[in-house]
Amino acid sequence: MNQSGKAKSAIAASIAAVVLLAGAIGLIMLLQQEPPAVLERVRQGGTLVVATRRAPSTYHDGANGPDGFEFALVQAFARHLNVKVRFVFPPTLEALLDATIRGSVHLAAAGLTITPSREEHLAFSLPYRYVTEQVIYRRGSRRPRSLSEVGPDDLHVVADSSHEETLRQLNATQFPSLTWQGHPGVSTGRLLSALEKGNLRLTVADSDDLALNRRVYTHAATAFELGEPQPIAWAFGKTGDDDLRNAANNFFKLIEKDGRLQRLRARYFGHTGRLNFVDTRNFWRHVRDRLPALQSYFEEAAEQTGIDWRLLAAIGYQESHWRADAVSPTGVRGIMMLTQATAKQMGIEDRNDPKQSIVGGAKYLRVVEKKIPDRIQEPNRLWLTLAGYNIGFGHLEDARILTQRDGASPDLWLEVKQRLPLLSQEKYYKTVRHGAARGREPVNYVDNIRNYYDLLVWYTTTSDRATRDRLLSGEND
Predict the structure, then answer these.
(1) Would strands 65-67 and 181-183 be described as parallel, antiparallel, or unpaired?
(2) pLDDT-based confidence at 273, cuts 50/70/90?
(3) Is 164 annotated as catalytic?
(4) From the candidates 70, 133, 164, 319, which is the catalytic residue?
(5) How many Cβ atoms from other residues are within 10 Å of residue 224's Cβ?
(6) What would the pLDDT profile of 155-170 be if each residue is shown by its tens digit?
(7) Alpha helices per DSSP H over 346-464
(8) Beta bridge partner(s), residue 204
(9) Contacts for 307 with CB less than 8 Å, ≥ 6 apart
(10) Using an 8 Å Cβ cutoff, are 100 and 235 in contact?
(11) What angle separates helix 380-391 from helix 309-320, to the nearest 10 degrees?
(12) How far apart are CA 202 and CA 383, in angstroms?
């Protein structure tokens, strides 16, 4: 080979060496690069994976699909991030916490209490609500007043729950003889069901869970509280970065400031304390004895108006307890308690006829709803419509004016319901167009209907047939 050829070969070899070196350096740099942050991976993938549990306070079947406080909160966060949500349902609380610790889900939104032992393995968001842990007994049995009155076989809790952790702390510090049984793989609802049947004496539940569940487990009642309110938060794995948790914290600060968090809490928990034991017991009796004869009329009215028949049935129950011959001192009568003027407006000839009353009431509800400004969205639109149906649209407008005068939003039921009772006070009703009204009544009216509607949705969607049949049988009333 001549000198020129050797030179060219040497140059080529040098170039190849440089290319190989550059490739190696690039590979080393690539390997040394940190993986994308969790938040960035969520945004790139377009999906937030969330572990939760099925319960009235978290995620359940609602009137129009999945519903629940945690469900709504996570959906709002996902919209904030501009991603979709995929919910997963680990079979046990232990599995849910383990999935979060291992990072197989992005976060857990399951009504989790922040506890010292959990903080060893998990990172938590800012708290977004507080609950009290309550010892629950069966109404009609002996009520204990403190843990010192709890017998050896009395107390049953979900294993590895925050409730069990609280009991361990109390056992170590104040009640050395305290014993309990932890049940792995069960829910608070299952334990409340067992208590309802008389199969166990005491359990522990968070205050919000009890408020929602006792409408179904009617004998569950609070014996005493275990301590101060406890913080509820989302949980994140400790591996990796904190970007997603920081984004959640910023989101909570935002919705706390703009009022959305308060409205969500009011939407899911604000009405639950209205019904007492007698109210719920009577309701389930009437579901058994009176609703079957009327259900087809509610369904027909739903077809004509597009209103959920269960909502119409809830209104009818609040109005008359489903009695066709109901009449009030003011002259309203029938299932939907229509005035003579309203009946005439809706073309109803006989207010005592169940079918006519139900169809007429449903149509009138639509008339009231059309008066609500178009900008008002659900669920505020529905709650304001119900208040107007009860008290009259003019008085509702007066309450909305009082709300606006206070600098609050007249489009939010949470705000308007606080001003409606003012219509019974002269210094307020003299300043509005339609004068005095019993403003407390529509507040109670709407809250009751929301409870009855919740129960009818549960009744028509539940897979817990044994509990449903037990409620309808009136057993152990």
Answers:
(1) unpaired
(2) confident
(3) no
(4) 319
(5) 14
(6) 999 999 999 999 999 9
(7) 354-371, 380-391, 393-405, 413-419, 426-429, 440-461
(8) 135
(9) 301, 362, 365, 366
(10) yes
(11) 30
(12) 37
